Amino acid sequence: MSYASLSVKDLNSLLSRSGSGSSSSPRTPGQTRPVKVIPLQHPDTSDEARPPSIPFDDIFSRWTAKIKRMSLLDWVDTLFPCFRWIRTYRWNEYFKLDLMAGVTVGIMLVPQAMSYAKLAGLPPIYGLYSSFVPIFVYAIFGSSRQLAIGPVALVSLLVSNALGDIADSSEELHIELAILLALLVGILECIMGFLRLGWLIRFISHSVISGFTSASAIVIGLSQVKYFLGYSIARSSKIVPLVESIIAGADKFQWPPFLMGSLILVILQVMKHVGKAKKELQFLRAAAPLTGIVLGTTIAKVFHPPSISLVGEIPQGLPTFSFPGSFDHAKTLLPTSALITGVAILESVGIAKALAAKNRYELDSNSELFGLGVANILGSLFSAYPATGSFSRSAVNNESEAKTGLSGLITGIIIGCSLLFLTPVFKYIPQCALAAIVISAVSGLVDYDEAIFLWRVDKRDFTLWAITSTTTLFFGIEIGVLVGVGFSLAFVIHESANPHIAVLGRLPGTTVYRNVKQYPEAYTYNGIVIVRIDSPIYFANISYIKDRLREYEVAVDKYTTRGPEVERISFVILEMSPVTHIDSSAVEALKELYQEYKAREIQLAISNPNKDVHMTIARSGMVELVGKEWYFVRVHDAVQVCLTYVQSSNSEDKKEPSFLRRFGNNGSSSNNSSYSDIQPGNTLLKEALLSGEK
């Protein structure tokens, strides 16, 4: 290993000539006050020292090693996560809580499932089918113990929007395509879970999700208004056709469904808010949908108002096994399948991880995604359309103190009992009551509080929220998602290609160097520019970094400076501790920058590169190009050495055309020497020895 070093002889000679610091009288080498410069250890880049090339099959070495270490019990827990809580189940403590939570969510799910099926353009029975088999499957394969899955409003809207252009909701093909969509979603979720690709969704900003969800909630609410008004409106995912259709049919308005729907909606909202506000009355929140259904059914059964449309006959019995008969439209449904999978990752997995953290158990997001996929695949074989985790029902499940997946099994039993025994009663449910349940559920998805928060905190994120919500409202769901994701990725790329770069100054009385804009009291030194790059350096941002470095050569003059007066910049110090990666394009660009500096008699110095960055620079030959003595562990060390040269140059006889030439070409003659402990007169040895600040 070689150490960064300067020639002891040259530096002692330099200090004896320069007077070592602020004192004007010369000093002998023995009288200099030394500064301790920590030597930077350079990597060995010889062929013998390089690690052997990694064969292709070693890419999965860690994965295979983990598999080899797994016991039979580990395999069972991985394939069937339910065994993790079955082995530790405390019947005396957990069963009562799981029973109450399962019953509560089941009472809430029955009316919601039928309402969401209507939103998807399907008969209400398919909402119950989607709440039956997937729940049992998820209880076995799912990792979360509190997540409540089944039909949700946003996925139902996506299903309706995707199938509306292919088949009318009254056709049998509409139902077949919805079931096929569940199969495709399940396959995609399993693939992404198995390949551990859930991280891809991290590139979608939370602002995009909030804006998309808020706009979708408004569209869902307007699409259900027809059951309140008593006349049909256009089927669309855009706000303009919906509003135009509502206005155009105003002459067909009927009071009875409007009054009943409004009454039920008010009751639902009051019960929901009271249940949230008071813990002892939280059961009201879960009972609200059932209360609305019972009230509406009673009024319809007793008074028989002719202008209020009812659900009608619902087939009785459990769903039967059937395999999708045709895959002709599978290619058309793939984009919607991918979108629903993205919603599952963002919402379901997000909720599951939050609930797992709150209840203090570990959850793997990819395993959770695989569990959701299996639930949708097996559910599609029993007439279910896509199911995913529900915000509201999961919150109720957790607030009811559900401890394990047994609560989900109990919810599934309640759905099964409803299919077997209660469907004859369901035919009297008013359509406006189901619409009120949907509107009540999606009203909480309009996240105006998030918009206000973003406006106060980050205008850029607010802009992203506004763009996504606006395009979703006026141009449809698909366009809204594409535009939102596009802008989100554009912001990520912009941040990566235009990284934060700071000019550093020294905090008074310390050896700490910080951003001069953040710390106005920090001062710089004449003739020296210290720049910190706060990102990886690669082909996309190296041009921007080079442009900023040229600007800072001029801009640094406006900050408080110290040190001897000089006419120009002589040193540029790059603080590289935040740089986690540098690629070959960036290294070549830095070489060009160094040559440019050299032509203008400016010396480049590099401080504290990490191991990988240092190795890349060393293998490229840049260490030898710049000179090993210009690589430092600390910014302070680099500043002290540069100050020594600046002071020497300032007091040197003007016969020398360049102070850099006085020490040879880049100091190459001293590359292999030990570092001399030298110090300009005003620098504190104690500070340099004790400070480890960057």
Automatic annotation (TrEMBL):
TM helices/strands, residue ranges: 94-114, 120-141, 148-167, 173-195, 207-233, 253-271, 283-303, 333-356, 368-385, 405-426, 433-453, 473-493
GO cellular component: plasma membrane
Biased composition (Low complexity): 14-34, 664-674
Keywords: Membrane, Sulfate transport, Symport, Transmembrane, Transmembrane helix, Transport
Gene Ontology biological-process entries: transmembrane transport
Subcellular location: Membrane
Membrane topology recorded in Swiss-Prot or TrEMBL: Multi-pass membrane protein
Domain annotation STAS: ranges: 518-642
Sequence segments annotated as region (Disordered): 14-52, 656-680
A Pfam family that the UniProt record links to this protein: Sulfate_transp
GO molecular function: secondary active sulfate transmembrane transporter activity; symporter activity; transmembrane transporter activity
UniProt entry tagged with the keyword Transmembrane helix: yes
Domain of life the protein comes from: Eukaryota
Protein name: STAS domain-containing protein
Source organism of this protein record: Brassica campestris
